[in-house]
């Protein structure tokens, strides 16, 4: 009777799609989403909860952008992890010196030919955190009181994307200036996602050194401090305009002098020959020009 009951239970389980663990291979992992810092080691766990086959076939695949490639195949490490990984019992894989290119999905597959359920797989997502590099900061050298301006900060290497913080004279600026008693009258706003620091109306108190810090879970980096001057009047603009006018004046003067040296403006003098023949009056005969004495043209009767 006992054997009959066991057989009946087995038939019932199999008919319902349930296979006892002793009749098939079953896998599990400690974490399906794994984070690792760049250049550090990370272990992806593929634990075999149940199996009857003594020498199961174990394979690992890396799936990036939907394209699979072998990581562990025919009892050896393959692909771009060939010299940076090893298989650990029972089926875990240890990756050394992780890089940002290791960010992908990894699938552990176990085939057990002697088991009723002869195959199982598990998918693990690995994301490698990358520390930000020194961000590129843009700070205006001089601004005028009451005008608007923007300071910029950008970093493209960090993963996940970093958050940005700004510092003024080595003190961190709060996200909302209203939270600081000495900044309550300031008109700035900070975008922690894009790194922008905008002033709607610059005050004299806003002058000083500024630097930006980019930070994520892997670390942080900051740019060197840059000075921003705040003037009551636009001294820089006045200087540039005056300098431009001076350049124009010098160029114009030089052009005139050069033209004078080449004689472009030289007038004709009084000593130069400039004869104009007088016009002759119609109907008057003055005789030949070469006659030297008076000639009688009529006779006189006494």
UniProtKB/TrEMBL annotation:
Pfam families reported for this sequence? Ig_3, V-set
**SUPFAM superfamilies this protein is in?**
Immunoglobulin
What keywords would UniProt list here? Cell junction, Cell membrane, Disulfide bond, Immunoglobulin domain, Membrane, Signal, Tight junction, Transmembrane, Transmembrane helix
Looking at the UniProt record for this protein, which Gene Ontology cellular component terms does it annotate, in alphabetical order? bicellular tight junction; cell-cell contact zone; plasma membrane; protein complex involved in cell adhesion
Note the SMART domains from the entry: IG, IGc2
Q: For this UniProt entry, which residues form the secretion signal?
A: 1-24
**MF term (GO), any:** cell-cell adhesion mediator activity
Checking Gene3D superfamilies in the record gives: Immunoglobulins
- Indicate where this protein resides in the cell: Cell junction, Tight junction; Cell membrane
Q: Which residues form the Ig-like domain?
A: 20-125, 132-216
Q: What is this protein called?
A: Junctional adhesion molecule 3a
């Amino acid at each position: 009777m006992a054997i009959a009951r066991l057989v009946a239970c087995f038939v019932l389980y199999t008919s319902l799609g349930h296979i006892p663990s002793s009749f098939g291979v079953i896998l599990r992992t400690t974490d399906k989403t794994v984070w690792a810092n760049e250049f550090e080691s990370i272990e992806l766990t593929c634990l075999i909860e149940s199996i009857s086959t003594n020498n199961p076939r174990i394979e690992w695949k890396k799936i990036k952008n939907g394209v699979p490639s072998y990581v562990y195949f025919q009892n050896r490490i393959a692909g771009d992890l060939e010299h940076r990984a090893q298989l650990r019992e029972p089926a875990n894989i240890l990756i050394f010196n992780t890089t940002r290119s290791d960010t992908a999905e990894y699938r552990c597959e176990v085939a057990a030919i002697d088991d009723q359920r002869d195959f199982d797989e598990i998918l693990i997502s690995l994301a490698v955190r990358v520390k930000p590099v020194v961000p590129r900061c843009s700070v205006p050298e001089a601004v005028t009181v009451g005008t608007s301006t923007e300071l910029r900060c950008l970093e493209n290497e960090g993963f996940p994307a970093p958050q940005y913080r700004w510092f003024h004279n080595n003190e961190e600026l709060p996200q909302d200036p209203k939270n600081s008693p000495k900044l309550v009258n300031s008109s700035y706003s900070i975008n922690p996602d894009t790194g922008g620091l905008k002033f709607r109306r610059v005050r004299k108190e806003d002058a000083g050194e500024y630097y930006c810090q980019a930070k994520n879970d892997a670390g942080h980096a900051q740019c060197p401090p840059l000075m921003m001057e705040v003037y009551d009047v636009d001294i820089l603009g006045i200087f540039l305009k005056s300098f431009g006018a001076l350049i124009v004046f010098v160029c114009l003067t030089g052009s005139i002098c050069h033209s004078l040296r080449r004689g472009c403006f030289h007038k004709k003098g009084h000593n130069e020959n400039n004869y104009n023949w007088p016009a002759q009056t119609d109907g008057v005969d003055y005789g030949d020009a070469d006659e030297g004495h008076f000639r009688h043209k009529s006779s006189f009767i006494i």
